Automatic annotation (TrEMBL):
Cross-referenced InterPro entries: Kazal_dom, Kazal_dom_sf, Prot_Inhib_GrowthFact_Antg
Keyword terms: Disulfide bond, Protease inhibitor, Serine protease inhibitor
Annotated Kazal-like domain residues: 15-66, 67-120, 121-166, 167-219
GO molecular function: serine-type endopeptidase inhibitor activity
Example GO biological process: cell differentiation
PROSITE patterns: KAZAL_2
Name assigned to this protein: Serine protease inhibitor dipetalogastin
Gene: LOC108743800
Keyword Disulfide bond applies: yes
Alphabetized Pfam families for the sequence: Kazal_2 (PF07648)
GO cellular component, one term: extracellular region
UniProt keyword Ribonucleoprotein present: no
């Protein structure tokens, strides 16, 4: 099959395309990708400009690697700092040394953490929102975001809350209270969400705090509720 003949034309014919491609404004974020032209681009946006201008496609995530076999591969990484590393093959490794050891001569490079599933949340900022979840490591976390961040590089996921409760041992005055709102007023003139939270305070204060009334302290319920149907 004959190659398509390419000839030189007047630059004005290319100017509209050049203007269109150069309109893209890219951030300066470092998130390197390798193009099919064997050139490393700062981030996918910079590559998209090259795609527009020259049809360059992404070869792989991360810096372009030299097509040379490694002279030596690490044999022992025990003394290396254990810090999760995301590889351009989509796998997570214990350290950069571990990546080089396990992927020796496979041209796998280190890439930003957000490219791997279990390290994507390592550097994110979580809110203080309290939506407690139980992790597959049988530990409670304030919310799912906190769970993922604290287990950077580990395959920890949300499981039913009863799994954590099953092996939970109450220590001192600590216990898990229900989230429903049925206010009670303590003798310290503080309103508690429900009787369970007041009981924790009674325990902490060594019985110096007691139940003063049902309802909020500003709108107490004078008559105690009856625990029967008729």
């Amino acid at each position: 099959k004959a190659n398509k003949k390419v000839s030189r034309v007047d630059f004005e014919k290319c100017r509209p395309k050049l203007s269109r491609c150069q309109k893209t404004k890219c951030p300066s974020d470092m998130d390197p990708v390798c193009g099919t032209d064997a050139k490393t681009y700062t981030n996918p946006c910079q590559l998209s400009i090259a795609t527009c201008l020259k049809g360059v496609q992404m070869a792989h995530i991360g810096n372009c690697t030299t097509l040379k076999r490694s002279q030596s591969c690490p044999s022992d990484c025990d003394n290396e700092t254990k810090e999760p590393v995301c590889g351009s093959d989509g796998n997570v490794y214990k350290s950069l040394c571990d990546l080089k050891k396990q992927t020796c001569d496979q041209f796998v490079t280190e890439v930003p953490l957000h490219h791997c599933k279990t390290t994507a949340s390592c550097n994110i900022t979580c809110t203080d929102e309290k939506q407690f979840v139980c992790g597959s490591d049988n530990k409670f976390y304030k919310n799912e975001c906190e769970m993922k961040r604290e287990n950077c590089g580990k395959h920890v996921y949300v499981v039913p809350i009863k799994r954590c409760l099953a092996g939970f041992m109450f220590k001192g005055c600590q216990k898990i209270c229900p989230t429903y709102y049925d206010p009670v007023c303590g003798s310290d003139n503080k309103t508690y969400s429900n009787l369970c939270f007041l009981e924790i305070e009674i325990c902490r204060s060594k019985n110096t705090v007691s139940l003063q009334s049902m309802g909020t302290c500003t709108e107490p319920i004078k008559e105690m509720p009856k625990n029967y149907l008729y």
